[in-house]
């Protein structure tokens, strides 16, 4: 916390952790170079180089070596695992596992679980990835996936009066 001026309620443990923070508040940095460039608030970095590049991103949690390393301004990201979300600059991403989300750049609203779990592209949005290319089965007691969509979420619903004859043609 070498450069701190008006920042408060910060905790730093480790060489150069929160080194360049001047005004950020409510940050916790544990590990060498964790939250090194930060001036943001309400971030938690645990592990060497975690949230290293963060300057203005808020509400991020990084646990593991190089977790959320390139995150500069992204917010509301959770990264748990060695190199997880290492190149991330997007928002609302969650990665759990070694290298999980390591290819994500500006992607958003991604959930990535398992070693090397990555979305379809570095800029993907609104995806869930379970596992990597070696996962050969998905085991779950529930055999169906239920959509969150229902009539309460829809607008402009109209009844069709086409009848059984129309359906038989289809």
Structure characterization notes:
The chain has one helix at 163-169, and strands spanning 11-13, 28-30, 44-46, 61-63, 78-80, 94-96, 108-113, 125-130. It is mainly beta and 170 residues long. It has an eight-stranded parallel β-sheet with strand order 1-2-3-4-5-6-7-8, with no helix packed on it. The longest helix is centred in the last third of the chain and has 7 residues, at 163-169.
Keywords:
single chain; 170 residues; mainly beta; 8-stranded parallel sheet; 18% strand; elongated
Could you provide a short overview of the structure?
The chain has 170 residues and is mostly beta strands. It is 4% helix and 18% strand. The longest helix has 7 residues.
Write the layout of secondary structure elements.
Blueprint: E1 11-13, E2 28-30, E3 44-46, E4 61-63, E5 78-80, E6 94-96, E7 108-113, E8 125-130, H1 163-169
Parallel strand pairs: 1-2, 2-3, 3-4, 4-5, 5-6, 6-7, 7-8
> Tally the helices: what do you get?
1
Oligomerization category of the chains in this entry = single chain
Give the helices and strands as they follow along the chain: EEEEEEEEH
Rounded mean pLDDT score:
92
* Backbone structural class: mainly beta
What kind of sheet is the major sheet? 8 strands, parallel
Total strands: 8
Task: Indicate the proportion of strand residues.
Answer: 15-25%
Strand arrangement in the largest pleated sheet: 1-2-3-4-5-6-7-8
The 3D shape can be described as elongated
Cα end-to-end separation: 69 Å
Radius of gyration: 21 Å
In helices, the fraction of residues equals under 10%
Low-confidence stretches: none
